[in-house]
Each structure stands twice: as structure tokens, then as C-alpha cells.
Amino acid sequence: MSGVSYAVGRDPHGDWDLLSAYVDGELAIEQRRTVEDHLAGCPGCRAELDGMRRVASRLRSLERAAPPPLLADQVARRVAVAARQPGLVVRLEEALRRLPVESSTLMTFGVVVALTAIAALFVAGVEDSDRAGPDRRPAAAVAHPAASAGDEGLEVTTAVVHGRVFDREGDLWRERHLDADGAPRIGADDPAAQEMLEAEPRLRDLLAGSDGILLEDGTGTVIWIEP
Amino acid sequence: MAAPAVSDRALAERHRTGDPEAFAEIYREHEAMVFNLALRLAGDRERAADLSQEIFLRIFRHLDGFRGRSSLKTWIYRVAVNHCRSRLRRRGLVFEHLVPSRGEGPDRTGSREEKDPLQDLADPRRSPEERALAGDAERILQTALAALPAVYREAVVLRDVEDLSYEEIAEVLGVRVGTVRSRIARGRRRLADELRESES
Question: What is the interface pTM, i.e. ipTM, of the complex?
Fold first, then answer.
């Protein structure tokens, strides 16, 4: 029950968050009574409440769909391929040594898909040519701490080139949207950042030489770490 | 949010040490959940199947990173929602082919069965008429869902379809409970408006 955060005595009239939480039984007893007292004399809020209840009820009545019969086999095949091709491990030092790369060589997706996996990390230092001047934002490597202990590097499964994001799929890189601008920005001393930096200490070198690095954890949650 | 089960961590540990049966167990346990979540977020069975494959591949690759701070179920929901969000944004429009253009209703004789990706979702025990009605109602609802901004769609689906608590949704989405409340309320209001419009 999360209703405790609502101030007791808050006027329920037109407060859709409150009414919606009422639908879900997420209000404390006093709040529930306040809402019910208000609803008794307010047809407008009752109509709104009914609308939200109907929506919730219709969604809840959707039948669970059976997964396609072939899904399990398809997943098993892809997992088997992934298991034979252990995660791409790139030494970060090597990538740093080679930076910066001429950005013109990485301008188009067609070029990027032809790159080898290791080359993809080079984009970590490609400067954003659209933003000339001292505040140029470095392109970012989206890196996953290496999966197994003893790997001396990062498993790079995602790369960012001029704000465009590419995921590795086998030997190819597929573009997708990654909301870098919407990613929470945290300082390097934040516990979440500390955890990632401890998991992969070489990230500190990358962080020190940039305005920030974009990190995506295993669940796909993205954060921007500032030095 | 219930404390993560010891068995969740043990399962992840077995995967880390190379036990193939660990991932198989996870797959069996979560297959329907992942597929249905992808279906409601993407609005299309074929696309949901593709997304499910990718989500499980991601789980396979990153299960080592599961630290047991949340339950494995929450962690998998998080992987799935994040993946669907990034893939569907890349696509731009979601579900566009299920929205019939004017004068091209879903009840054209003969063509609907072949073209409708949702047609086989209704309970097969029902009569063809009942299935058609249920299919139409579901199509209208799914179209309205697809019209929602992704953040509202995710919150509403996690609450009303997946039956997660506000706290669990906050954990899956990485936002505060207050934000969850607000997204659910806005999503439901917009859905109510959309449904009123499409059914009037």
C-alpha cells in the first residue's frame, strides 16, 4: 500500500491520480473515506472514476495469449549461437590508444555494419562534428562490464556514433533508438556509478577523459555518468 | 516488493557456472509473461515473437549481472520493458498496420482471418461469433493502447494486464511510486477517451 504519501485532507475533486489510486486500492483508509465522501456528491468525479474503472476492467479481462509454438526453438537456436560466440571482449586500453578516429570514416550506417567488432569501440572517442568548439560532446561507448571474471576488458554490445546507437547482433550492428538525453545523469560518486566503475575500473580512464559516459546495464537501463 | 528468493540467485549462479538447465528453467517460467508483455506493448503477435526472442537472448547474455537486489521476475520485466521501448522507438510507429483506414473495417468477409494478427488470441473454446466479437473488442483496446505515449502504455500494461503493484512497477521502470501513480492515471484517462471515441 503506497497511499501514505498522500496528504490527508487533500481535496479529491479533479485529482485523477488520487481517483486512479482509489481504483487500485492504493489509498490509506482515511484517504479512501475522503474520496468516497467526495464521490457521493460529485457526479463529474464519479463519471471519471467509472471511466477509469472500465478501462482497468477491460484490460484485466484480456486473455493471456499462448506464445507461438516455435518460439522456444527459435530462442534455443539463438542462445546456442550466442553461447558458441562468447561475448565480444575489447581491451579498453587499445581503444583509447587509437582515439580519436576520423569521424568521416564512421558517418554512415553502411560503414558501421562493415566494421569489425573491435573497431566499433573506436567510436568511444569520436567527436561530435555537429558541435564544434570547446564544448564538443564526446561520442559515447555504451559498455557492459565483462560477463565473466578474468576478462580484461569490456563486452561492447552497443556503440554510439554521432548520437546514433547501434547494437551488435552477431557480426552486424543494428541501429536503434537509445534515449541518451532522457537517461538520468549522475555523478561518478553516486553509488550506482560507483558500482559500475568498480565492476570495470577501466571505465574510470574513459570517464576522466570525457564529459561523461553513457552506460547501459544488463537490463537495458541507461545512465549517464559525469566525471 | 517481496525479497528476492534465494532460488533466484542460485539460478543465476548456476547459469554463470555454465549449467544450461538454469536458463531453460527461466525460459519455461517466464515465456508466457515475456510474450504477453511484448504483445501488449507492441500490439502485434509477430513482432511480439521477435521481441521475445531478443529479450531472452539479452537475459541469457546478462543474467550474470543479476545481483539479487530485486526478484528475478522484476529484473526480467525490466529487461523486457527496456528492450521493447528501445526497439519500438526505433521503429517509430507501433501497430500502424492494425489501424484500419477509413472505410476499411475489420469485418470484411474473408480477409480478416488472414490479415488480423490478433485473430487467434481469442479463446478457441468460444463460438466463431463470440470469438469475432471478442477479437473486435480486443482490437479496439489494443489500438487505443498503441495510441498512448510509451511511458503511459508501459505503466498501464504493467498494472492492469500484468497485475503488478505500484511499488513493483516503480522498481521495474526505475521511477518513484508517485510517478507510477501519475502515469497510470493519465494512461487510463487517455484510454477512456480513446475508447469513447472509437466506440461512439
Answer: 0.77
